[in-house]
Every structure is written in structure tokens, then in C-alpha cells.
Amino acid sequence: MTRPILLSLFFLMSAVASIPAQSPADEAKPDFSWRQTETSVALLNHGQVVWQHVHDRKMGKPFMRIGLIDGTELTRPCPFPADYPKNDHTWHRALWWSWKAIDGVNFWEQNQLGTDPVKVEVSHNDDGSARIHATIAYHLPDRPPVVMEDRVIIVGAPEASGTYLIDWQATFTPAGDRDVVFNRNSYGGFAIRLAAECCGDPAKGKPGWTFFDSEHQADSNGRAARWVAYRGTAPGDQEAGVAIFDHPDNPRHPSLWQTRGHYPYLNPSFTCKEDYTLPAGKSLTLRYGVLVHQGLPDAEKLEKRWKAFAGSAVR
Fold first, then answer.
1. Once rounded to an integer, what is the mean pLDDT over residues 43-51?
2. How many independent structural domains does the chain possess?
3. Cβ(64)–Cβ(76) under 8 Å?
4. Does the residue 211 lie in any domain?
5. Measured in Å, how far apart are the chain's first and last C-alpha atoms?
6. % the chain with pLDDT above 70
7. CB–CB of 94/192 below 8 Å?
8. What residues contact 93, with CB distance under 8 A and at least 6 apart?
9. 100 with 184: CB under 8 angstroms?
10. Are 238 and 204 in contact (CB under 8 A)?
11. In angstroms, rounded to a whole number, what is the distance separating the alpha carbons of residues 272 and 52?
12. What pLDDT, in 10s, does the model give residues 121-148?
């Protein structure tokens, strides 16, 4: 082997040896990137999906899949595999919005696809924050819209702990010159369906996730509260929680809630007790916050978070 080649090998090996090995601390540091298509946007950390917003007109209702900073998904996958446990209520779409009925027409179940994202604009930042602005039409197939929605979703940058906030505001306006009625139903509106693992696995000694709320009620179902949280052990034995905040500017605040433990579901139900009539030419704005919490949240910390959310403005 000639001297020039030996010298080249020596310098190459020296350069490789001088590269510091990646420490666990380096691996724990966030490494955010974005994956965006015409129908979705996702935040990735070290290549793993933290959250994804899907706005595919072929699928109808837009929705978000949300998870922890390491990529552990907390919501039920959508669409989910045929053998996925707890595959009931196939129209539940992770974190999503759907009125139960408008003017007596069912927009909730999967057989009513008339909730289309007409236009979606997405902007995102290197720190993992994003803004999603969507125009959505509610209509029967091949019929003109009855309601238009202007939706703004602000996803905050994940904190050092991995906790992040989703600020979701929706403004509804009748599409025509007639009043619109959002019909009474115990459930419907802004809702989240958690992963099957949140039901627990008694055979493995893992209890299901538990609800608790701002009013310290043992059962939030059908009751009023400023916020309701759901917490427990996520896949990988990580403690985590998800809380939904009801903004004080919302009509009918504090919201009545719907909770389910046998299939993990949480819903501030705007029309739980009575219809809401939206006059032609007027608008209804509803705003909610979703705190994805790394570790188990407690009531005191969540109350502080709710107050911060309640005093903030939509950007």
C-alpha cells in the first residue's frame, strides 16, 4: 500500500475517532421535523409522529391523531386496523368535531360524510408549533351547505417536559338566509376518542384511565365543569394525561360533559340539554383547549393551565 493511501486512511480514521458519541442526553433533545402533504400535516420528533392533522376531502370530517413526544399515540388510530381492539363506533375519529344533528339531519355517524374541508392553510415552525386554518362545509351529499365553519387550530410548541397545548376555535355561520338549529343530543360536538390501551388490561394488572374535573366530581358525565381530564398509563408504561378546557367565552359555559370509560371517550357537549338556534346572518364561536400532558397531571396544575388558556387570545 502506497504512502499517500496510508496517510489518507490515517486522517480518515482520526476524523471518525474525533466525532463524539451521541449521549442519552442528546437523544432526549427534541429533533423536530415536518411531514406535509395536500391532505395532512404531521409533527415528527426523531422521525416519530407526535401529532397529525388529516384534512382529506375523501374522508370527510377532518381530525387529529395526537400522542406523546416520543411518538406514543394516545388517540385511537384513524382509520384503524380491522383487528384493532375496541373497534366499536367506527365514526369516532381520534380528536374531531361533528355536530350530532343539524336541522334534524344526522351528521355524526359515518354514513353522513357531508362535512368537507373546503380549504386548508397550514403554517409551521422549527420549534414544533403550527397553525391550521380550515374552511369546512356541512351539507348532505350533492346538496348545498347548510352551515359553514371557520376553524383555527393553534398547536403550541412542546415544552421541555413534552407537554403541549392545542387551541381549537370554530366559528359557525348559516350558509343560507334561514336560521339553523343544532339539535339537542346528550353527546356531539368537540370530542376525543382515546386508544384502546386507555381502557386498561386487568389481566396484566393495568387499571384503566380515570376521569377527574375542575369541580372534584367523581363522575363528570352529564355534569358541568370548566375542564375535564383523563389520565393513566400509556403504552410503554408512561404516565400521561389529556385534558379538555372549556373557554369562559363559550355560550353555556361551564360546559356539560359526556365521558365513557368502557370505550375511552371525552366530549364537552354544547347541545346536551337543549337545541341551539343560530339565526341567519349571525355566527357562533366555540373555543376549546386540549392539553396533552407528559406525566400525570393534578388538579392544581390543570386549574392554572385553564386560567392561562382562559385569559389568552386566539392568534
1. 98
2. 1
3. no
4. yes
5. 66
6. 89
7. yes
8. 61, 63, 78, 193
9. no
10. no
11. 29
12. 999 999 999 999 999 999 988 889 999 9
Contact 240, 295 (CB under 8 A): yes
**pLDDT (mean) for 195-209:** 81
Confidence of residue 12 (pLDDT cuts 50, 70, 90): very low
Residue 10 inside a domain? The answer is no
- Measured in degrees and rounded to the nearest 5, phi and psi for residue 184 equal -60, 135
Tally the C-alpha atoms within 13 A of residue 145's C-alpha that lie toward its C-beta: 15
- What is the pLDDT at residue 18? 45
Range of the domain at 221: 29-310
CATH code: domain of residue 207? 2.70.98
Task: Identify whether the C-beta of residue 257 lies closer than 8 Å to the C-beta of residue 223.
Answer: yes
Share of the chain above pLDDT 90, in %: 72
For 159-187, what is each residue's pLDDT tens digit? 999 999 999 999 999 999 999 999 999 99
CA angle 71, 74, 78 (to 5 degrees): 95
Q: How far is CA 265 from CA 21, 85, 238, 260, in A?
A: 44, 15, 20, 5
Tell me the C-alpha distance between 74 and 195, whole Å: 5
Give the β-pairing of 115-124 and 130-138: antiparallel
Residue 245 in domain: yes
199, three cell numbers: 381502557
Distance, in Å, from the CA atom of 156 to the CA atom of 130, rounded to the nearest integer, reads: 7
Region 282-304: what's the mean pLDDT? 96
Angle at alpha carbon of residue 138, lines to 104 and 112, rounded to 5°: 65
What are the angstrom distances between the C-alpha of 68 and each of 52, 167, 245?
Answer: 12, 17, 19
